[in-house]
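hey m, so remember when u said the tokens were messed up on ur end? i reran from scratch. heres the input so u can diff it against urs
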Amino acid sequence: MGICEGRVAVVTGAGRGLGREHALELGRQGAAVVVNDIGAELDGSGGSSGPAGEVVEIIRAAGGQAVANAGDVADWDGAGSLLATALESFGRLDVVVNNAGIVRDRMFANATVEEFDAVLRVHLRGHFCVARHAAAHWRDRAKAGDEVDARIVNTSSGAGLQGSIAQSVYSAAKGAIASMTLVQAAELGRYGITANAIAPSARTRMTEGAFADMMKAPDEGFDAMDPANVSPLVAWLASPASRDVTGRVFEVDGGRVSLCDGWRTGVEIDCGQRWEPSDLGEAVAGLVEKSDPPQKVYGS
């Protein structure tokens, strides 16, 4: 019996890459899975239900339960269709794994408003819409007296935590997702809902082009960049065993799991009155000297 036996999970962007592996692992762990994917190209164009259907077939062939959903996660009604599919097909919803995303990599000085809107729409708005529908459903169940043990698992990125050259828009979206996760955890715990995020590093359509050497599969031995390495943590976060863990961001790749120590108040100086601008140079220099240097931006 798997650790998610009897649970129902929605996984967005589950036709390929990380989402596909998350859906398959959840299926192996006993969850019924709503496999969401619009089948779009890497830049968000096009769409088909083929990739999601293929994942459903694999889960069913292994004895699991799964259905496909081609709803647009960044469209309010499309996101709502994921909840409806879960309830109509399996009678409940316990887990949302937000994974869907696109990239439009470009140096900041060349990035366009259209690219900014497109990337934030899928990543940030998509995370918001799906989880917002689920949270309202779980809140209503909790207020009705039902026992709720629900999970939101969001997908941030090292680019969102430390920044990444030529990915300012993607980094902004992923950083916002990490912040939204903290607020979800703080607000929704009273209803039996946890919210955590992962920042994975794995070989996907998004990373193969940008980090070709790093993502290349080895000729032999452990393939650290296999996206399937990330999915066991997602399955555990989706399970009842994780009910005491919320508001956390985990970096994960290969066999490594790291608990992120994000933005927090650091060393400080208080002069007890309003600062003179001319005095702040020395004060800031002292703060910088006492502080640990920030992690390097990826690619710098």
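this time it looks ok to me. The first strand starts at residue 8 and ends at 11. if urs says something different then somethings off w ur setup not the seq
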